[in-house]
């Protein structure tokens, strides 16, 4: 009897193998089209673009600034929103902008934090909605949008650019200048979104990096090139005023669909169907970044690196939270849009929608494929050299086309891993790229869990009353808990020193150009070059740098030479890093460290790790007489 069950299971898994291999082939061919198109276009443009002048900072600066309204929807974000607002307002290289933060009357902690920042940063506006939360995110955004219209009347200005951002975003200092340069020639601009770097073994967060690094350096470029749908990522998306006015709903008085959990995707798709101009903009700048060198990684050197003008953020690091967020994305992009938009008449849009919607089945086969694979390994081991049972090899000999199918599917899978490897290497570095291989298996399990949750949530959701033309189901806003990065992680994304010095008329643009040319020859930090050329006084420069990095400036007399209860070995280690002990509070387990170069985020991170579990605070030390 057991033999019969095993043979039945053998046949069932054989047909599963064929079924999954066919689906892998179809899905893999779809992905292969994007890869072939991208690389063909890449090499053609690499030759052609030599004839065109690249976009420069001067081009961006010479464009008169339009008013930018940043829409930030908040629900229970008291722990991150103030830090996000303060860091971004200080970093953004733009003047005519306001951050409108949508809050709820039954979320007093978030309201208090936003109003606290608003009291001393004029660019921040707290928008308290009329309804208690949580509503859908789209309803919150519509409330902000309508408030902006009233705010315009009060100030007598008009916002020409509207931008999506979340409460955990690190906004690139130059992103607003890019939007300002291209709008209103373009109706929607999406810049890349990349997760911040964290510990390499935090696979959950890095799964997001795997996906965004590939999609936002390759797939979206192809989607724009073939005139398909360029989806909004929900952050780093800029809309022209005209675009949002065209899609305003007369019932809600807002442009964002309240019956969608992915209002960003719905908005961009609506714009595409209406024939408005969408672009995915990939621009990069060169910056000096610190790298660890030597066998034991004890030395730090400056290297010139390409940096994308992109939004950065910390994504969920816990498995359950990632499943929740991905399930919400699947519900909005796959299920709700299938009901709402169906299949538009434009074949290019249909093709890109099919690419997105195939997740309803590919997440299953990517995850369950491991079950089939493990079955055949276990079965082959248990029945090895036992002629009483049929073998997989016999079946493949009888049906060689299945073997060909399996080989092709395997090659497509390896090609997928290669493309992801390239994307990770392009945005991050070699180690995250190599680790994307084992993460692929982890990511498939996570996505399988997310699709199961999405099916359960969507099909068990209560049907809404048909008070509008929409018939889509409306599960509640399953909001993700957000975390804003520590200040040392933000170091590479702060405003440039040269921009600050020019804006405050401390140096002229011509002096900055001279200093940058000198910097390119010597590889020194810009501050050292400016001081050496006598363009700025060293003391004044230190004050500006301290202000730039939100650090207190202290004199060298504050250094504790022979502290009690602190090992001389630690003091020697700090001095070897050009760092000094300024204060040690044993009772509160807090230590204050003076540093000479706040730009070296790797050094700061190593000090934090060395002094753990003590709470480490940094100040800028002035070693001059």
TrEMBL record:
Gene3D superfamilies for the chain: Spore Coat Polysaccharide Biosynthesis Protein SpsA, Chain A
Keyword Metal-binding: no
Transmembrane regions listed in the UniProt entry: 6-26, 360-378, 398-414
Positions in coiled-coil regions: none
Nuclease keyword on record: no
Keyword annotations from UniProtKB, A to Z: Membrane, Transmembrane, Transmembrane helix
Entry protein name: Bacteriophage N4 adsorption protein B
Species this protein is from: Legionella busanensis
